[in-house]
Design a protein that fits this description.
Elements lengths: L1 E8 L3 H12 L4 E4 L7 H5 L6 E4 L7 E2 L7 H6 L2 H10 L4 E3 L4 E4 L4 H14 L2 E3 L6 E5 L2 E5 L4 E9 L14 H8 L4 E7 L3 E2 L2 H7 L6 E8 L2 E9 L3 E3 L1 H7 L8 E4 L6 H11 L5 H5 L5 H9 L13 H12 L1 E3 L3 E2 L7 E6 L17 E3 L7 E2 L4 H14 L3
Parallel strand pairs: 1-2, 1-10, 2-7, 10-20
Antiparallel strand pairs: 3-6, 4-21, 5-6, 8-9, 9-10, 11-19, 12-15, 12-18, 13-14, 13-16, 14-15, 16-17
Helix pairs in contact: 1-5, 1-13, 9-12
The structure holds flavin-adenine dinucleotide.
The site of flavin-adenine dinucleotide (FAD) has 38 residues, from helix 1, helix 2 and helix 13.
Protein backbone atom coordinates (compact mmCIF):
# COMPACT_ATOMS: atom_id res chain seq x y z
CA UNK A 1 0.00 0.00 0.00
CA UNK A 2 1.30 3.44 -0.96
CA UNK A 3 1.15 6.16 1.69
CA UNK A 4 0.54 9.84 0.81
CA UNK A 5 -0.21 12.95 2.81
CA UNK A 6 -2.64 14.25 0.19
CA UNK A 7 -4.42 12.60 -2.71
CA UNK A 8 -6.28 14.89 -5.10
CA UNK A 9 -8.84 13.28 -7.41
CA UNK A 10 -8.98 15.24 -10.67
CA UNK A 11 -6.15 16.86 -12.62
CA UNK A 12 -8.21 19.83 -13.75
CA UNK A 13 -7.81 23.49 -12.85
CA UNK A 14 -8.86 23.17 -9.21
CA UNK A 15 -7.11 19.87 -8.47
CA UNK A 16 -3.76 20.87 -9.94
CA UNK A 17 -3.81 24.23 -8.20
CA UNK A 18 -4.59 22.64 -4.85
CA UNK A 19 -1.89 20.00 -5.30
CA UNK A 20 0.74 22.64 -6.08
CA UNK A 21 -0.08 24.57 -2.90
CA UNK A 22 -0.17 21.44 -0.74
CA UNK A 23 3.17 20.23 -2.09
CA UNK A 24 4.72 23.67 -1.53
CA UNK A 25 3.88 23.18 2.15
CA UNK A 26 5.91 20.01 2.10
CA UNK A 27 2.95 17.63 1.84
CA UNK A 28 3.61 14.46 -0.15
CA UNK A 29 0.94 14.97 -2.80
CA UNK A 30 -0.47 12.78 -5.56
CA UNK A 31 -3.01 13.74 -8.21
CA UNK A 32 -5.11 10.98 -9.78
CA UNK A 33 -7.03 11.46 -13.01
CA UNK A 34 -9.03 9.16 -15.27
CA UNK A 35 -7.76 10.83 -18.47
CA UNK A 36 -4.63 10.53 -20.58
CA UNK A 37 -3.43 14.07 -19.87
CA UNK A 38 -3.83 16.84 -17.32
CA UNK A 39 -6.00 19.93 -17.76
CA UNK A 40 -8.10 18.66 -20.64
CA UNK A 41 -10.84 21.25 -20.15
CA UNK A 42 -8.30 24.03 -19.84
CA UNK A 43 -6.87 23.00 -23.21
CA UNK A 44 -10.18 23.32 -25.00
CA UNK A 45 -11.48 26.30 -23.05
CA UNK A 46 -11.97 29.74 -24.53
CA UNK A 47 -11.83 28.37 -28.07
CA UNK A 48 -8.32 26.97 -27.35
CA UNK A 49 -7.07 30.21 -25.80
CA UNK A 50 -8.40 29.72 -22.23
CA UNK A 51 -10.24 32.63 -20.70
CA UNK A 52 -8.28 32.06 -17.51
CA UNK A 53 -9.76 34.78 -15.31
CA UNK A 54 -11.73 38.02 -15.32
CA UNK A 55 -10.38 41.29 -14.01
CA UNK A 56 -13.80 42.17 -12.58
CA UNK A 57 -14.37 38.82 -10.82
CA UNK A 58 -16.33 39.26 -7.60
CA UNK A 59 -18.80 37.15 -5.61
CA UNK A 60 -21.64 38.85 -7.50
CA UNK A 61 -20.67 36.86 -10.60
CA UNK A 62 -21.46 33.49 -9.02
CA UNK A 63 -24.59 31.39 -8.47
CA UNK A 64 -24.96 29.23 -5.37
CA UNK A 65 -27.65 28.36 -2.84
CA UNK A 66 -25.44 30.28 -0.41
CA UNK A 67 -24.13 33.28 -2.31
CA UNK A 68 -21.80 34.23 0.56
CA UNK A 69 -19.87 30.96 0.48
CA UNK A 70 -17.50 31.89 -2.35
CA UNK A 71 -16.48 35.22 -0.78
CA UNK A 72 -13.72 33.91 1.45
CA UNK A 73 -11.80 31.95 -1.22
CA UNK A 74 -12.26 34.62 -3.89
CA UNK A 75 -10.89 37.29 -1.58
CA UNK A 76 -7.90 35.23 -0.45
CA UNK A 77 -6.77 34.15 -3.91
CA UNK A 78 -7.83 36.84 -6.37
CA UNK A 79 -7.69 37.30 -10.13
CA UNK A 80 -4.66 39.57 -9.52
CA UNK A 81 -2.80 36.71 -7.84
CA UNK A 82 -3.43 34.47 -10.84
CA UNK A 83 -2.51 37.24 -13.30
CA UNK A 84 0.77 37.72 -11.40
CA UNK A 85 1.53 34.00 -11.82
CA UNK A 86 0.74 34.16 -15.55
CA UNK A 87 3.05 37.19 -15.87
CA UNK A 88 5.79 35.44 -13.92
CA UNK A 89 5.73 32.72 -16.61
CA UNK A 90 5.87 35.34 -19.37
CA UNK A 91 2.58 34.11 -20.85
CA UNK A 92 1.23 36.68 -23.30
CA UNK A 93 -2.45 37.52 -22.79
CA UNK A 94 -5.04 40.13 -23.67
CA UNK A 95 -8.41 41.39 -22.54
CA UNK A 96 -10.97 40.34 -25.13
CA UNK A 97 -14.06 42.02 -23.75
CA UNK A 98 -15.74 42.73 -20.40
CA UNK A 99 -12.57 42.03 -18.40
CA UNK A 100 -12.11 38.54 -19.91
CA UNK A 101 -8.42 37.59 -20.10
CA UNK A 102 -7.32 35.13 -22.79
CA UNK A 103 -3.91 33.71 -23.75
CA UNK A 104 -2.52 35.31 -26.91
CA UNK A 105 -1.15 31.97 -28.12
CA UNK A 106 -2.74 28.91 -26.64
CA UNK A 107 -4.42 27.44 -23.59
CA UNK A 108 -1.48 25.04 -23.56
CA UNK A 109 0.58 27.87 -22.03
CA UNK A 110 -1.58 27.64 -18.89
CA UNK A 111 -1.38 23.84 -18.72
CA UNK A 112 2.41 23.97 -19.22
CA UNK A 113 2.62 26.53 -16.43
CA UNK A 114 0.64 24.26 -14.10
CA UNK A 115 2.80 21.26 -15.05
CA UNK A 116 5.97 23.25 -14.29
CA UNK A 117 4.53 24.41 -10.96
CA UNK A 118 3.69 20.76 -10.14
CA UNK A 119 7.22 19.67 -11.05
CA UNK A 120 8.80 22.47 -8.99
CA UNK A 121 6.72 21.67 -5.93
CA UNK A 122 7.17 17.90 -6.32
CA UNK A 123 3.56 16.94 -7.09
CA UNK A 124 3.22 13.40 -8.44
CA UNK A 125 0.58 12.76 -11.09
CA UNK A 126 -0.91 9.39 -12.05
CA UNK A 127 -3.07 9.36 -15.19
CA UNK A 128 -5.60 6.86 -16.57
CA UNK A 129 -6.60 5.81 -13.08
CA UNK A 130 -9.98 4.16 -12.62
CA UNK A 131 -10.87 4.55 -8.95
CA UNK A 132 -13.14 1.73 -7.89
CA UNK A 133 -13.52 2.45 -4.21
CA UNK A 134 -12.77 5.00 -1.49
CA UNK A 135 -13.01 4.17 2.19
CA UNK A 136 -12.13 5.87 5.46
CA UNK A 137 -10.75 4.19 8.58
CA UNK A 138 -8.57 5.31 11.49
CA UNK A 139 -8.22 8.85 10.13
CA UNK A 140 -6.94 7.61 6.74
CA UNK A 141 -8.56 7.38 3.31
CA UNK A 142 -7.97 4.33 1.13
CA UNK A 143 -8.23 5.01 -2.59
CA UNK A 144 -8.48 1.81 -4.57
CA UNK A 145 -7.73 1.28 -8.26
CA UNK A 146 -7.49 -2.15 -9.96
CA UNK A 147 -3.68 -1.91 -9.74
CA UNK A 148 -3.10 -0.45 -6.29
CA UNK A 149 -4.50 0.71 -2.98
CA UNK A 150 -3.23 4.09 -1.85
CA UNK A 151 -3.70 5.63 1.56
CA UNK A 152 -3.73 9.30 2.52
CA UNK A 153 -4.48 11.67 5.36
CA UNK A 154 -6.26 14.28 3.23
CA UNK A 155 -8.46 13.50 0.26
CA UNK A 156 -9.33 16.36 -2.08
CA UNK A 157 -12.24 15.79 -4.48
CA UNK A 158 -11.77 17.92 -7.59
CA UNK A 159 -13.55 15.80 -10.20
CA UNK A 160 -15.52 18.67 -11.73
CA UNK A 161 -19.09 18.47 -12.98
CA UNK A 162 -20.95 16.57 -15.67
CA UNK A 163 -20.39 18.80 -18.67
CA UNK A 164 -18.61 17.29 -21.66
CA UNK A 165 -18.83 13.58 -20.76
CA UNK A 166 -16.59 12.76 -23.72
CA UNK A 167 -13.80 14.68 -21.95
CA UNK A 168 -13.90 12.38 -18.94
CA UNK A 169 -16.59 14.08 -16.86
CA UNK A 170 -18.18 11.72 -14.35
CA UNK A 171 -20.55 11.96 -11.40
CA UNK A 172 -17.85 10.50 -9.16
CA UNK A 173 -17.41 13.64 -7.04
CA UNK A 174 -21.12 13.80 -6.28
CA UNK A 175 -21.20 10.06 -5.53
CA UNK A 176 -18.27 10.37 -3.12
CA UNK A 177 -19.97 13.26 -1.36
CA UNK A 178 -23.12 11.18 -0.92
CA UNK A 179 -21.16 8.13 0.18
CA UNK A 180 -19.70 10.21 3.02
CA UNK A 181 -23.07 11.66 3.98
CA UNK A 182 -22.76 15.11 2.38
CA UNK A 183 -25.82 16.60 0.77
CA UNK A 184 -25.65 17.14 -2.99
CA UNK A 185 -28.00 19.73 -4.47
CA UNK A 186 -29.75 18.91 -7.77
CA UNK A 187 -27.51 19.47 -10.77
CA UNK A 188 -28.31 20.83 -14.24
CA UNK A 189 -26.43 22.02 -17.30
CA UNK A 190 -25.31 25.66 -17.25
CA UNK A 191 -23.74 28.09 -19.72
CA UNK A 192 -25.51 26.08 -22.38
CA UNK A 193 -27.41 26.83 -25.63
CA UNK A 194 -31.22 26.73 -25.42
CA UNK A 195 -33.25 24.66 -27.88
CA UNK A 196 -36.30 25.49 -30.02
CA UNK A 197 -39.84 24.32 -29.48
CA UNK A 198 -40.66 22.31 -32.64
CA UNK A 199 -42.86 25.15 -33.97
CA UNK A 200 -40.08 27.74 -33.51
CA UNK A 201 -37.54 25.42 -35.08
CA UNK A 202 -39.57 25.31 -38.27
CA UNK A 203 -39.61 29.11 -38.34
CA UNK A 204 -36.16 30.13 -37.16
CA UNK A 205 -33.77 27.44 -38.34
CA UNK A 206 -33.71 29.16 -41.73
CA UNK A 207 -31.87 32.09 -40.18
CA UNK A 208 -29.28 30.02 -38.33
CA UNK A 209 -25.95 31.81 -38.38
CA UNK A 210 -27.53 35.22 -37.76
CA UNK A 211 -25.95 36.95 -34.77
CA UNK A 212 -26.77 40.29 -33.16
CA UNK A 213 -26.23 42.22 -29.93
CA UNK A 214 -29.22 41.82 -27.60
CA UNK A 215 -30.18 41.91 -23.98
CA UNK A 216 -31.51 38.56 -22.78
CA UNK A 217 -33.73 38.48 -19.70
CA UNK A 218 -35.11 35.65 -17.56
CA UNK A 219 -36.28 35.72 -13.96
CA UNK A 220 -35.35 39.41 -13.59
CA UNK A 221 -31.73 38.88 -14.61
CA UNK A 222 -30.48 40.61 -17.77
CA UNK A 223 -27.33 40.08 -19.84
CA UNK A 224 -26.29 42.39 -22.66
CA UNK A 225 -24.20 40.45 -25.18
CA UNK A 226 -24.45 38.76 -28.58
CA UNK A 227 -27.10 36.17 -29.44
CA UNK A 228 -26.76 33.58 -32.21
CA UNK A 229 -29.57 31.75 -34.05
CA UNK A 230 -28.59 28.10 -34.63
CA UNK A 231 -30.27 25.08 -36.21
CA UNK A 232 -31.07 23.76 -32.77
CA UNK A 233 -32.02 27.00 -30.99
CA UNK A 234 -30.42 30.08 -29.49
CA UNK A 235 -26.80 30.41 -28.50
CA UNK A 236 -24.08 33.06 -28.19
CA UNK A 237 -22.77 34.64 -24.98
CA UNK A 238 -26.04 36.37 -24.02
CA UNK A 239 -27.91 33.06 -24.15
CA UNK A 240 -25.19 31.05 -22.39
CA UNK A 241 -25.20 33.63 -19.60
CA UNK A 242 -28.97 33.68 -19.19
CA UNK A 243 -29.17 29.87 -19.37
CA UNK A 244 -27.82 29.79 -15.78
CA UNK A 245 -30.94 31.64 -14.64
CA UNK A 246 -33.48 30.08 -17.03
CA UNK A 247 -35.62 27.17 -15.83
CA UNK A 248 -37.71 24.85 -18.02
CA UNK A 249 -41.03 26.50 -18.79
CA UNK A 250 -39.69 30.05 -18.42
CA UNK A 251 -39.93 32.64 -21.15
CA UNK A 252 -36.92 34.59 -22.41
CA UNK A 253 -37.40 38.26 -23.15
CA UNK A 254 -35.03 39.53 -25.80
CA UNK A 255 -34.39 43.14 -26.71
CA UNK A 256 -33.38 42.76 -30.34
CA UNK A 257 -31.97 46.29 -30.64
CA UNK A 258 -30.75 47.33 -27.20
CA UNK A 259 -28.33 49.89 -28.57
CA UNK A 260 -31.09 51.87 -30.32
CA UNK A 261 -34.11 53.72 -29.06
CA UNK A 262 -36.25 52.08 -31.77
CA UNK A 263 -39.16 54.54 -31.68
CA UNK A 264 -36.99 57.62 -32.03
CA UNK A 265 -34.87 55.94 -34.70
CA UNK A 266 -38.01 55.18 -36.76
CA UNK A 267 -39.45 58.68 -36.27
CA UNK A 268 -36.16 60.17 -37.42
CA UNK A 269 -36.04 57.88 -40.47
CA UNK A 270 -39.64 58.77 -41.23
CA UNK A 271 -38.77 62.44 -41.41
CA UNK A 272 -35.56 61.98 -43.36
CA UNK A 273 -36.71 59.25 -45.79
CA UNK A 274 -40.55 59.27 -45.92
CA UNK A 275 -40.68 57.09 -49.04
CA UNK A 276 -38.37 54.42 -47.66
CA UNK A 277 -39.86 51.03 -46.82
CA UNK A 278 -40.04 50.05 -43.16
CA UNK A 279 -38.03 46.84 -43.74
CA UNK A 280 -35.21 48.88 -45.31
CA UNK A 281 -35.11 51.18 -42.28
CA UNK A 282 -35.15 48.22 -39.86
CA UNK A 283 -32.30 46.55 -41.74
CA UNK A 284 -30.12 49.51 -40.69
CA UNK A 285 -30.33 48.37 -37.06
CA UNK A 286 -31.05 44.63 -37.37
CA UNK A 287 -29.59 41.84 -39.54
CA UNK A 288 -31.44 41.76 -42.87
CA UNK A 289 -32.30 38.05 -42.64
CA UNK A 290 -33.89 38.63 -39.24
CA UNK A 291 -35.90 41.57 -40.56
CA UNK A 292 -37.24 39.38 -43.37
CA UNK A 293 -38.15 36.69 -40.86
CA UNK A 294 -39.96 39.21 -38.65
CA UNK A 295 -41.89 40.41 -41.69
CA UNK A 296 -42.85 36.82 -42.55
CA UNK A 297 -44.01 36.39 -38.94
CA UNK A 298 -46.10 39.56 -39.30
CA UNK A 299 -44.31 41.27 -36.42
CA UNK A 300 -44.68 44.30 -38.72
CA UNK A 301 -46.24 45.07 -42.08
CA UNK A 302 -44.04 46.48 -44.72
CA UNK A 303 -45.06 49.96 -45.89
CA UNK A 304 -43.48 53.31 -46.69
CA UNK A 305 -42.34 55.04 -43.52
CA UNK A 306 -44.65 57.99 -44.18
CA UNK A 307 -47.66 55.68 -43.75
CA UNK A 308 -46.61 54.74 -40.21
CA UNK A 309 -48.67 56.16 -37.35
CA UNK A 310 -47.07 56.99 -34.01
CA UNK A 311 -49.08 54.08 -32.57
CA UNK A 312 -47.55 51.62 -35.08
CA UNK A 313 -44.10 52.87 -34.20
CA UNK A 314 -44.76 52.40 -30.50
CA UNK A 315 -46.14 48.90 -31.04
CA UNK A 316 -43.15 47.91 -33.14
CA UNK A 317 -40.78 49.37 -30.56
CA UNK A 318 -42.46 47.21 -27.92
CA UNK A 319 -42.40 44.09 -30.12
CA UNK A 320 -38.70 44.40 -30.93
CA UNK A 321 -37.49 45.39 -27.49
CA UNK A 322 -39.49 42.68 -25.68
CA UNK A 323 -39.45 39.77 -28.12
CA UNK A 324 -40.53 36.60 -26.34
CA UNK A 325 -39.04 33.18 -26.98
CA UNK A 326 -40.10 30.10 -25.07
CA UNK A 327 -37.24 27.62 -25.33
CA UNK A 328 -37.97 23.92 -25.17
CA UNK A 329 -34.92 23.07 -23.06
CA UNK A 330 -31.15 23.15 -23.14
CA UNK A 331 -28.64 21.24 -25.22
CA UNK A 332 -27.62 19.51 -21.97
CA UNK A 333 -24.24 18.38 -20.73
CA UNK A 334 -23.04 17.51 -24.24
CA UNK A 335 -22.31 21.19 -24.92
CA UNK A 336 -22.71 22.85 -21.49
CA UNK A 337 -19.65 24.65 -20.14
CA UNK A 338 -20.55 24.05 -16.51
CA UNK A 339 -22.74 22.14 -14.09
CA UNK A 340 -25.00 24.12 -11.78
CA UNK A 341 -25.65 22.74 -8.30
CA UNK A 342 -23.47 20.08 -6.68
CA UNK A 343 -22.03 19.57 -3.22
CA UNK A 344 -24.03 21.71 -0.81
CA UNK A 345 -21.81 24.51 0.52
CA UNK A 346 -23.46 24.14 3.93
CA UNK A 347 -21.49 20.92 4.24
CA UNK A 348 -18.14 22.68 3.77
CA UNK A 349 -16.00 25.24 5.56
CA UNK A 350 -15.68 28.30 3.31
CA UNK A 351 -12.29 28.98 4.87
CA UNK A 352 -10.70 25.59 4.12
CA UNK A 353 -13.14 23.78 1.78
CA UNK A 354 -13.02 20.83 4.20
CA UNK A 355 -16.20 18.86 4.88
CA UNK A 356 -17.53 19.94 8.27
CA UNK A 357 -18.45 16.40 9.33
CA UNK A 358 -15.80 14.41 7.49
CA UNK A 359 -12.31 15.36 8.64
CA UNK A 360 -9.62 15.40 5.97
CA UNK A 361 -12.04 15.40 3.03
CA UNK A 362 -12.10 18.52 0.82
CA UNK A 363 -14.26 19.51 -2.17
CA UNK A 364 -13.10 22.18 -4.63
CA UNK A 365 -13.90 23.60 -8.07
CA UNK A 366 -16.96 22.80 -10.09
CA UNK A 367 -18.08 19.81 -8.02
CA UNK A 368 -19.16 22.36 -5.38
CA UNK A 369 -22.41 24.30 -5.69
CA UNK A 370 -20.68 27.47 -6.91
CA UNK A 371 -21.03 28.37 -10.58
CA UNK A 372 -19.68 31.43 -12.32
CA UNK A 373 -20.88 33.47 -15.24
CA UNK A 374 -19.31 33.07 -18.64
CA UNK A 375 -16.06 35.03 -18.90
CA UNK A 376 -13.23 33.46 -16.87
CA UNK A 377 -15.18 33.34 -13.61
CA UNK A 378 -15.30 29.56 -13.42
CA UNK A 379 -11.56 29.18 -13.70
CA UNK A 380 -11.12 31.90 -11.07
CA UNK A 381 -13.31 29.83 -8.74
CA UNK A 382 -11.25 26.72 -9.53
CA UNK A 383 -7.95 28.54 -8.79
CA UNK A 384 -9.28 30.22 -5.64
CA UNK A 385 -11.00 27.19 -4.10
CA UNK A 386 -8.02 25.00 -5.02
CA UNK A 387 -5.55 27.46 -3.54
CA UNK A 388 -7.51 27.73 -0.29
CA UNK A 389 -7.78 23.96 0.20
CA UNK A 390 -4.09 23.68 -0.63
CA UNK A 391 -3.23 25.74 2.46
CA UNK A 392 -4.93 23.25 4.81
CA UNK A 393 -5.13 19.77 3.30
C1 LIG B 1 -15.87 23.78 -23.67
C2 LIG B 1 -15.63 24.50 -22.35
C3 LIG B 1 -15.03 25.73 -22.38
C4 LIG B 1 -14.82 26.42 -21.16
N1 LIG B 1 -14.20 27.62 -21.20
C5 LIG B 1 -13.99 28.28 -20.04
C6 LIG B 1 -13.27 29.52 -20.04
O1 LIG B 1 -12.74 29.95 -21.08
N2 LIG B 1 -13.15 30.17 -18.85
C7 LIG B 1 -13.65 29.68 -17.67
O2 LIG B 1 -13.49 30.32 -16.63
N3 LIG B 1 -14.28 28.49 -17.65
C8 LIG B 1 -14.45 27.78 -18.80
N4 LIG B 1 -15.08 26.58 -18.76
C9 LIG B 1 -15.47 26.02 -17.44
C10 LIG B 1 -14.21 25.42 -16.77
O3 LIG B 1 -13.54 24.59 -17.69
C11 LIG B 1 -14.58 24.63 -15.52
O4 LIG B 1 -15.39 25.38 -14.67
C12 LIG B 1 -13.30 24.19 -14.79
O5 LIG B 1 -12.52 23.42 -15.64
C13 LIG B 1 -13.62 23.44 -13.52
O6 LIG B 1 -12.43 22.99 -12.98
P1 LIG B 1 -12.40 21.70 -12.07
O7 LIG B 1 -10.95 21.46 -11.79
O8 LIG B 1 -13.33 21.82 -10.95
O9 LIG B 1 -12.96 20.53 -12.99
P2 LIG B 1 -12.41 19.93 -14.37
O10 LIG B 1 -11.56 20.92 -15.08
O11 LIG B 1 -13.59 19.38 -15.06
O12 LIG B 1 -11.44 18.76 -13.92
C14 LIG B 1 -11.93 17.58 -13.34
C15 LIG B 1 -10.97 16.46 -13.64
O13 LIG B 1 -11.39 15.30 -12.91
C16 LIG B 1 -11.29 14.18 -13.76
N5 LIG B 1 -12.23 13.16 -13.29
C17 LIG B 1 -13.57 13.16 -13.39
N6 LIG B 1 -14.07 12.03 -12.87
C18 LIG B 1 -13.00 11.30 -12.42
C19 LIG B 1 -12.86 10.03 -11.81
N7 LIG B 1 -13.93 9.27 -11.55
N8 LIG B 1 -11.62 9.59 -11.53
C20 LIG B 1 -10.54 10.33 -11.80
N9 LIG B 1 -10.61 11.54 -12.39
C21 LIG B 1 -11.83 12.02 -12.69
C22 LIG B 1 -11.63 14.72 -15.13
O14 LIG B 1 -11.13 13.91 -16.16
C23 LIG B 1 -10.95 16.08 -15.08
O15 LIG B 1 -9.61 15.99 -15.54
C24 LIG B 1 -15.26 25.86 -19.93
C25 LIG B 1 -15.85 24.60 -19.94
C26 LIG B 1 -16.03 23.91 -21.12
C27 LIG B 1 -16.67 22.55 -21.09
Amino acid sequence: MQQWDVIVIGAGAAGLFCAIEAAKRGRKTLVLDNGKRIGRKILMSGGGRCNFTNIYASPANYLSENRHFCKSALSRYTQWDFIALVQQYGIAYHEKTLGQLFCDNSAKDIVDMLQQECDKAGVQIALQQEISNVTFADGQYQVVTPQLTRQCQSLVVACGGLSLPNLGATAFGFQLAEQFGLKVLPVRAGLVPLTWQPSDKAVFEEISGVSLPVTAEANNVVFPEDMLFTHRGLSGPAILQISNYWQPGDELTINLAPEQAIASFLSEQQQQHPAQELKTALAKILPKRLVEKLLELQVFQNQPLKALHAKNIERLDQALSCYIFKPNGTEGYRTAEVTLGGVDTNELSSKTMEAKNQPGMYFIGEVVDVTGWLGGYNFQWAWASGWVAGQYC
